[in-house]
Amino acid sequence: MTLLKRYVVRMFMSLKYITANVVDRNNGRIVASASSVENALKSTLECKRTCNAKAAAVVGEVLAMRLRVEGLENGQGRGIHVDVGKEIEKKGLQNRTKVWAIVNALKNNGVKLVLENV
């Protein structure tokens, strides 16, 4: 069974960290992931702030780079789906700038996104 929305972006935010994953919905496998928990990312952030909009943008850039390495920046022709409204609703309005920072970083780094509920 193939799904029309095969690849989707999922975001997780805590008070300290931000994580973004791209999930293959056919088998539930995470195909690419980036997080501000990673030491390589933590060391590049100024003032070691791992959960602000700048950190979210860095997480989005790293995720885009990892998708390019995997050859999935186009989502095998269908794009990678992001339900922005659902992500903002789940994370709360105070985190909407972080959600948009990740989405914009992915778009600016060449990932073909299909935005829903904008």
What is the rounded distance between the termini? Answer: 28 Å
* SSE pattern, N- to C-terminal: EEEHHEHHE
- Which geometry do the CA atoms define? globular
The percentage helix is 25-40%
CATH topology: Nucleotidyltransferase, domain 5
Largest sheet: 5 strands, mixed
Total count of helical runs of at least 4 residues: 4
Rg over CA atoms: 13 Å
CATH C-level class: Alpha Beta
Pfam families: Ribosomal_L18p (PF00861)
GO molecular function: 5S rRNA binding; structural constituent of ribosome
Keywords: Ribonucleoprotein, Ribosomal protein
Family: Belongs to the universal ribosomal protein uL18 family.
Description:
By secondary structure, this protein is of the alpha/beta class. The protein contains 4 helices and 5 strands; from the N terminus they run βββααβααβ. It has one domain (7-116): Nucleotidyltransferase, domain 5. A 5-stranded mixed beta sheet has the order 3-2-1-4-5. Helix 3 runs antiparallel to helix 4. The termini are far apart. This is Ribosomal L18p/L5e family protein.
